[in-house]
Amino acid sequence: MTTEAIDPNVPPSGTGCVECLAADGWWVHLRRCTACGHVGCCDSSPSQHATAHWRETGHPVIASFEPGEEWFWDFEHEEGFAGPELAGPRSHPPDQPTPGPAGAVPADWQDHVHQ
Which domain holds residue 62? Predict the structure, then answer.
């Protein structure tokens, strides 16, 4: 695993996927870059911004940004692991719907997810 790619002091970039929010898009689940705090959408989401962030920046480790989830993923080694406590908040607000954000998710959202 790539623990040098984790800066536990960096806060998340916000409460939702940076790129989806900028484009009035939506996501299924959220992931947080442990190097810079970028919040992106998961690979089930239509735009897969968390993986795109890794490919663009080389930041190989993400953490779940979902309430109650505390796992980490190393893209380079394709493995999950338990990581350190990160700067808060550890997830999006509990009242934010999944998928989200509220009002942006199409009624047929399940037809647009990646399996």
Answer: 3-87
Sequence-separated (6 or more) residues with CB below 8 Å from residue 58: none
Question: Does 45 score more than 80 pLDDT?
Answer: yes
The answer to whether residue 39 is domain-embedded is: yes
* pLDDT > 90: percent of the chain: 94
Three-state DSSP state, 106: coil
Q: Please, what sign has the CA dihedral across residues 53, 56, 57, 62?
A: positive
CATH code, 46:
3.30.40.10
Answer positive or negative: Cα dihedral of 53, 59, 60, 64. negative
Q: Say if 99 falls within a structural domain.
A: no
Q: How confident is the model at residue 4 (pLDDT cuts 50, 70, 90)?
A: confident
The partner residues of 80 in beta bridges, in order of sequence, read 73
Environment class of 86 (CB within 10 Å of its CB; exposed 0-12, middle 13-18, buried 19+)? buried
Cβ(15)–Cβ(21) under 8 Å? no
Domain tally, the chain: 1
DSSP state of 27: B
